[in-house]
């Protein structure tokens, strides 16, 4: 059972620590419910814990997946958690009881990701997508298989839903596929010779970006399929986050944060904003869902809050004693959940101001 310690001391001018918990292993994923009442925390070894976000009290502990959990996601309209793991299964869990409602075959020996579509059409419940090997499957909310996209050119590296449309982006080697599972044909196939690691889709759908194995960031204009490539990053790029207005894209790939201004004619020919404050390689970048603040974290446990459109220095910082593996803002942007490599989970609240 995860342990809990409370903290009431102030550690920074803008972030108040609210509670701290310990799970069994490295935190591989965090997920808030849409209303912000619950936080699910997945340990890489398998177990998943569900917490009350205000009190820090444990709600339930889920067994997760044998050989390890890899991804978790809350259903948008219910306290049902989807999880994926290295046992080849997708599971749907009732958060209150901690019981598994359904076990689904992911299509390969391990399932890397699960993502609920945030858009609901009419009376249709939300749809779940899962990625396993070269296979992407779409599931009805009750666990029925709707359809399968198989035989991608390589293992699917990432999948991301558009925030406002029933469209999924799928990254595999050499191609980024944009699809609507209700249509027979792909919306677009965007080709280039490279290996994408993560996808970030702007909220307005104008751009889709990927962080890549070859230390680049790739942009596509979705309406035309035209592309841009940003290079010069010290390492492969796994950290991407768009601001809520789809103007700024924050990118990692080293210890510096590079923020591209994508307004107007786009980032081509513009000098990006450089944010220097981390001495160690970045592990996570996360813009608020509605606000303009950016959270960043690194391998030495430094968490920083930035206002890149106004300042080049952090608004505040928090130094933790373990590498940060996950950051997640609450849906109302007032709280920040932090997961670390040592299994610690911390909840901070943003001070007014």
Topology:
Elements: E1 3-6, E2 15-22, E3 27-32, E4 38-43, E5 48-52, E6 58-62, E7 69-74, E8 80-85, E9 89-94, E10 100-105, E11 113-116, E12 128-132, E13 135-139, E14 145-149, E15 158-161, E16 168-172, E17 175-179, E18 188-191, E19 196-201, E20 207-212, E21 217-221, E22 227-230, E23 240-242, E24 248-251, E25 257-261, E26 273-275, E27 282-287, E28 294-298, E29 302-306, E30 316-319, E31 324-329, E32 335-340, E33 344-350
Antiparallel strand pairs: 1-2, 2-33, 3-4, 4-5, 5-6, 7-8, 8-9, 9-10, 11-12, 12-13, 13-14, 15-16, 16-17, 17-18, 19-20, 20-21, 21-22, 23-24, 24-25, 25-26, 27-28, 28-29, 29-30, 31-32, 32-33
Short description:
The protein has 353 residues and is an all-beta fold.
Provide an overview of this structure.
It is a single chain. Strands 1-2-33-32-31 form a 5-stranded antiparallel sheet, with no helix packed on it. It has a 4-stranded antiparallel sheet with strand order 3-4-5-6, with no helix packed on it. Strands 7-8-9-10 form a 4-stranded antiparallel sheet, with no helix packed on it. It is globular and about 50 Å long. Residues 1-13 have low confidence and may be disordered. By secondary structure, it is mostly beta strands. A hairpin with a 6-residue loop joins strand 15 and strand 16 (168-172). The two termini are 37 Å apart. It has strands spanning 3-6, 15-22, 27-32, 38-43, 48-52, 58-62, 69-74, 80-85, 89-94, 100-105, 113-116, 128-132, 135-139, 145-149, 158-161, 168-172, 175-179, 188-191, 196-201, 207-212, 217-221, 227-230, 240-242, 248-251, 257-261, 273-275, 282-287, 294-298, 302-306, 316-319, 324-329, 335-340, 344-350.
């Amino acid at each position: 059972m995860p342990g809990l310690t409370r903290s009431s001391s102030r550690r920074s001018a803008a972030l108040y620590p609210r509670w701290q918990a310990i799970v069994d292993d490295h935190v591989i994923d965090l997920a808030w419910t849409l209303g912000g009442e619950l936080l699910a925390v997945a340990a890489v070894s398998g177990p998943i814990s569900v917490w009350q976000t205000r009190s820090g009290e444990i709600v339930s502990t889920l067994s997760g997946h044998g050989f390890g959990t890899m991804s978790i996601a809350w259903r948008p309209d219910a306290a049902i958690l989807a999880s994926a793991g290295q046992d080849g299964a997708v599971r749907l869990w009732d958060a209150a009881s901690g019981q598994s409602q359904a076990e689904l075959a992911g299509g390969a020996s391990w399932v890397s990701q699960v993502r609920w579509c945030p858009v609901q059409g009419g009376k249709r419940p939300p749809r779940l997508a899962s990625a396993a090997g070269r296979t992407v499957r779409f599931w009805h909310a009750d666990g029925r298989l709707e359809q399968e996209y198989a035989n991608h050119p390589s293992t699917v590296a990432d999948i991301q839903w558009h925030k406002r449309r029933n469209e999924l982006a799928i990254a595999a080697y050499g191609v980024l596929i944009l699809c609507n599972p209700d249509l027979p044909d792909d919306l677009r196939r965007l080709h280039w010779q490279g290996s994408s690691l993560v996808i970030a889709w702007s909220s307005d759908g104008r751009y889709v970006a990927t962080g890549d194995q070859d230390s680049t960031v790739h942009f596509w204009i979705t309406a035309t399929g035209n592309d841009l490539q940003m290079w010069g990053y010290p390492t492969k790029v796994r950290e991407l986050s768009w601001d809520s207005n789809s103007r700024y894209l924050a990118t990692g790939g080293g210890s510096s944060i590079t923020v591209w201004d994508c307004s107007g004619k786009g980032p081509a020919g513009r000098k990006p904003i450089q944010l220097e404050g981390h001495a160690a390689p970045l592990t996570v970048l996360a813009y608020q869902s509605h606000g303009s603040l950016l959270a960043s974290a690194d391998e030495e446990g430094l968490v920083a809050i930035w206002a890149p459109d106004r300042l080049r220095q952090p608004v505040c910082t928090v130094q933790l004693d373990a590498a940060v593996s996950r950051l997640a803002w609450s849906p109302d942007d007032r709280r920040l959940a932090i997961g670390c490599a040592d299994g610690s989970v911390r909840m901070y609240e943003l001070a007014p101001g």
